[in-house]
Amino acid sequence: MHYNKNRYATDKKVADNITESWLCVDCGVNTAPGIPDGPTTRIEMALKGTAKSRLGPDSEVYTVWPKLWKKAGMKPWDGCLCIGCLEKRLGRKLKHSDFDPSDPFNQEPVCSKGTERLLDRRRNHKWEPPGKFSWNDE
Ligand SMILES: [Zn+2]
């Protein structure tokens, strides 16, 4: 699928919170293979009233603090970045405190599902054993 970044940015006038494309804008990997893209989701919602989605060990669905997203050269609704490409742009590995715990993408049931590297970055390495995740440390 061809991805026109300029067109996408100006087209985001639809009053919903549906992500247009889950493809990483840098490397093209699908960050949410179990979730249809925006146009497909809207059609399914209109026809069936619901859209099927699945998160799993192949998903990188997350948000980081807006100032960090901006630091990576991204604007709101600018598209998705896989963890590897976001870290490449930032020049460092992500850490627990980079994720906004108030965002639904960083809460259950979304936050406990994802690639190993996403779960690793979300984990508070100070006290959480591998495989465990919680925001209840502050
Ligand atoms: Zn990428």
Molecular structure report:
The chain contains 5 helices and no strands. Helix content is 28%, strand content 0%. The protein is globular, with a radius of gyration of 15 Å. It starts with a helix and ends in a 16-residue tail after the last helix. The longest helix has 11 residues. The N terminus is likely disordered. By secondary structure, it is mainly alpha-helical. It has one domain. The chain binds zinc ion. The site of zinc ion has 8 residues, from helix 4. The site of zinc ion (ZN) has 8 residues, from helix 4.
Spans of at least 5 consecutive residues with low confidence: 1-9
Bound molecules: zinc ion
Question: Can you count the beta strands?
Answer: 0
- What fraction strand? under 5%
Helix and strand string, N-terminal first? HHHHH
Rg result: 15 Å
Mean pLDDT: 83
Main sheet properties: none
Shape: globular
Alpha-beta content class: mainly alpha
Ends distance: 42 Å
Helical run tally: 5
Percent of residues in helices comes to: 25-40%
Count of domains: 1
